[in-house]
Write a structure and sequence with these properties.
α3 packs across α7. The mean pLDDT is 97. 36% of the residues lie in helices and 14% in strands. α4 links the parallel β3 and β4. It is an alpha/beta fold and 350 residues long. The protein starts with 25 loop residues before the first strand and ends with a helix. Bound molecules: 4'-deoxy-4'-aminopyridoxal-5'-phosphate. 4'-deoxy-4'-aminopyridoxal-5'-phosphate binds next to α3.
């Protein structure tokens, strides 16, 4: 026996590298947004009353929950706000997945899901995507203690049509289905309208990607108010003050500037389609992306070699050494200039 025997041991989630390099870095490895946050956020930062920091923040981030609710046509008590969608998803796992039955999610998906099932000791089973990396809805008709699906999926970038999501939700009235829509603004079809129809559906989104707020840490869940109230109870059992006052104020400014959001997301989507075409001309095969990244494989060159080579040129993309996807690269869409530099380095290499 040792004191170490009584300690909780987990295999942590491994985020993309935050490299420190000499010279220019082209960072396309963590799906960050390439443009700055809205100018309205800059105004909010400049007008922050420092005096407010003396006080504890609002426990439910009410002004931000209200702004999100208004944006998407819900009531404030149908919105839960957290410190990035990782915080919101972790809360979902802890709140909604509390049975002996396995939670279901795809074999290839966001690699945080099995970390949360591990730390919260939730049984789970992974359902293999088909050969085209698509979800097979029938896999989710079996007995389960909850379901979580990233849509669009990561790291594939593929979006499942809404009728597939609805089919899964409607087949599982006795468990909570969580749809992780971190990338939905870049081309997916949101399940938010289904929240009005299904009491067992929770939709999770983030400000980290399409609202250029990865560093601010804001995510949210929308569901019927009973489920949101359960999430708040779990949160209040751990830490009532997760959202700081500044993040709440800046988040309101970000969500209210819809014009800037539409314009900048549109730019990323246009860059994505242009780069996809160019990469295909260079011998890459790219999955159909509904996100701010491309998932690509090359017909001759191993993905790992390309990944290593790009790194020597201070260009960071993501490589996953995992079954089925270990010959793919996930490339975040940066600015046009960054993508052009990456393409010219790839041309040299190939
Ligand atoms: N879901 C998916 C599918 C993601 O790729 C990410 C980003 N790593 C997240 C959730 C979490 O993002 P954040 O905590 O920044 O909202």
């Amino acid at each position: 026996m040792s004191y170490l025997d009584n300690i909780r041991k987990v295999t942590p989630y491994v985020p993309g590298e935050q490299p420190k390099v000499e010279g220019e870095l082209i960072k396309l490895n963590t799906n960050e947004f390439p443009y700055p946050p809205s100018p309205k956020v800059v105004e909010a930062i400049e007008s922050l009353e420092v005096e407010t920091l003396r006080l504890y923040p609002n426990t439910t981030a009410a002004p931000l929950a209200k702004a999100i609710a208004d944006r998407y046509g819900f009531d404030e008590d149908e919105v839960f706000v957290g410190v990035g969608s990782d915080d919101v998803l972790a809360n979902c796992f802890l709140t909604f997945f509390s049975s002996d039955k396995p939670v279901l999610f795809p074999d290839i998906t966001y690699s945080f899901y099995d970390v949360w099932t591990d730390i919260y000791r939730i049984p789970y089973e992974t359902m293999p995507l088909d050969d085209d990396f698509k979800i097979k809805k029938e896999d989710y008709y079996r007995r389960n203690g909850g379901i979580v699906i990233a849509n669009p999926n990561a790291p594939t970038g593929i979006a499942a049509p809404l009728d597939v999501i609805e089919d899964i939700v409607s087949h599982n009235p006795d468990s909570v289905v969580v749809i992780d829509e971190a990338y939905v603004d870049f081309g997916g079809e949101s399940a938010l309208p289904l929240v009005k129809k299904y009491k067992n559906l929770v939709v999770v989104q983030t400000f980290s990607k399409s609202r250029a707020f990865a560093g601010m840490r804001i995510g949210f869940a929308i569901a019927n108010k009973e489920l949101i109230s359960c999430m708040n109870n779990v949160k209040f059992a751990i830490n009532s003050y997760t959202m700081n006052s500044a993040a709440i104020a800046y988040g309101v400014a970000a969500v209210n500037d819809n014009e800037y959001f539409i314009e900048t997301v549109g730019k990323v989507v246009a860059t994505r389609e242009r780069v996809k075409k160019t990469l295909e001309e260079l011998g890459f095969v790219s999955l159909n992306s509904a996100t701010n990244f491309l998932f690509v494989t090359h017909k001759d060159k191993p993905a790992k070699d390309i990944f290593e080579y790009l790194k020597t040129k201070n260009i960071y993309v993501r490589y996953f050494n995992k079954p089925r996807i270990n010959n793919y690269l996930r490339i975040t869409i940066g600015t046009d200039d960054q993508m052009d530099k990456m393409i010219s380095v790839l041309k040299e290499y190939l």
